[in-house]
């Protein structure tokens, strides 16, 4: 079954979002990664159970409860989620029948697979219902629960729902023109919530906890966050219009990932605003590598050590626009060596260094590759 899972994930994603457009909207919002991870965990956990019936599925269960919470926050009945689960099961069964024909598996085996699959779907529904009931039991008439739902709606994919103003009144929360999102590193200390200002929205019981601070990060707001966060590491997103709140959170979470990868230096509090170019350059590392490979194709056939020296010289040269003497100081080599390498690069790259578009592509991709290699410790 394992070789079929990547393709099956794509097929289920396409058919479920076609049948239930609301999930297509959620897959473009800030919870997209958690949703995709949850679907992936649900499929892989089924196969893991076949291979090892005693294997636990703690991560899967937490993500499934998250699915149930999302349904409750958005005011839907569980029928939609249950329908999506069952559609996914039918797609998986269809794939299993095709494999049965391909490998001449017995009808009894396919029937046993179908029984196990739909029993598994019942289990998924039961666990998601736990999250759904958990939210409902908080009684949406209470201000904290309404504020949590309000945060969820603000961070859903645009446009903002028309019901937002009414929910703000019910939650006793003033709708701001601008907001700043804060991504937190899990687990969050128990004392954090008590230290937050009354108008800060938060969701701390999720795999990727976060805050919404109305307005910009004034000195008073920063002092409040500093006192509340304590030892909890955080990334401060950009201050953006309310409709772009999801972007602020997405960028903050990306910086948190870059910290984990070693690209951005860790600190108790990191500002997105200090790493905007890095965020942009590394928004699609695979594409950066592809652009760099195209621009540097003329030197591909050189020995690796010589190629690396030329690439590093080129990176410093195009990014600093400095004379050979200064480039040499940065690289720790003589200026004549720099001039020799630049002449080699001119000969190998032809007009690329003189062409503005190629030169920009070279500089951007080389800067990005340098950041990635720094993160890899190379």
UniProtKB/TrEMBL annotation:
Pfam families: HTH_30, PucR-like_N. Residues 310-368 form the PucR C-terminal helix-turn-helix domain. Gene3D superfamilies: PucR C-terminal helix-turn-helix domain (1.10.10.2840). InterPro entries: CdaR-like_regulators (IPR051448), PucR-like_N (IPR058663), PucR_C-HTH_dom (IPR025736), PucR_C-HTH_sf (IPR042070). It comes from the Bacteria. Residues 1-155 form the PucR-like N-terminal domain. This is Regulatory protein.
């Amino acid at each position: 079954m394992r070789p079929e899972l990547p393709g099956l994930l794509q097929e289920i994603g396409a058919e479920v979002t076609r049948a239930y457009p609301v999930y297509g909207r959620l897959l473009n919002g800030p919870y997209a990664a958690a949703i995709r991870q949850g679907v992936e965990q649900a499929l892989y956990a089924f196969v893991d159970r076949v291979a090892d019936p005693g294997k636990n599925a703690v991560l899967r269960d937490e993500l499934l409860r998250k699915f149930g919470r999302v349904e409750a926050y958005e005011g839907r009945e569980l029928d939609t989620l249950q329908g999506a689960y069952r559609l996914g099961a039918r797609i998986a069964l269809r794939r299993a029948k095709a494999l049965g024909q391909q490998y001449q598996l017995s009808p009894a085996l396919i029937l046993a697979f179908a029984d196990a699959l739909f029993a598994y779907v019942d289990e998924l529904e039961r666990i998601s219902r736990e999250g759904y009931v958990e939210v409902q039991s908080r009684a949406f008439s209470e201000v904290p629960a309404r504020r949590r739902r309000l945060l969820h709606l603000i961070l859903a994919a645009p446009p903002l729902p028309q019901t937002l103003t009414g929910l703000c009144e019910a939650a006793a929360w003033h709708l701001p023109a601008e907001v700043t999102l804060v991504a937190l590193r899990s687990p969050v200390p128990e004392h954090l919530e008590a230290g937050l200002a009354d108008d800060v929205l938060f969701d701390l019981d999720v795999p990727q906890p976060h805050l919404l601070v109305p307005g910009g990060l004034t000195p008073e707001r920063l002092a409040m966050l500093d006192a509340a966060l304590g030892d909890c590491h955080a990334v401060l997103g950009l201050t953006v219009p309310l409709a772009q709140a999801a972007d602020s959170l997405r960028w903050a979470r990306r910086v948190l990932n870059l910290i984990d990868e070693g690209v951005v230096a860790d600190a108790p509090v990191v500002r997105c605003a200090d790493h905007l170019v890095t965020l942009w350059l590394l928004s699609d590392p695979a594409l950066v590598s592809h652009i760099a490979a195209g621009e540097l194709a003329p030197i591909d056939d050189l020995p690796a050590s010589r190629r690396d020296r030329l690439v590093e010289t080129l990176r410093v040269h195009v990014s600093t626009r400095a004379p050979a003497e200064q480039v040499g100081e940065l690289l720790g080599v003589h200026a004549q060596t720099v001039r020799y390498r630049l002449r080699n690069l001119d000969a190998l790259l032809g007009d690329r260094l003189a062409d503005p578009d190629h030169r920009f592509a070279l500089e951007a991709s080389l800067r990005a590759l340098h950041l990635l290699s720094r993160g890899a410790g190379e």
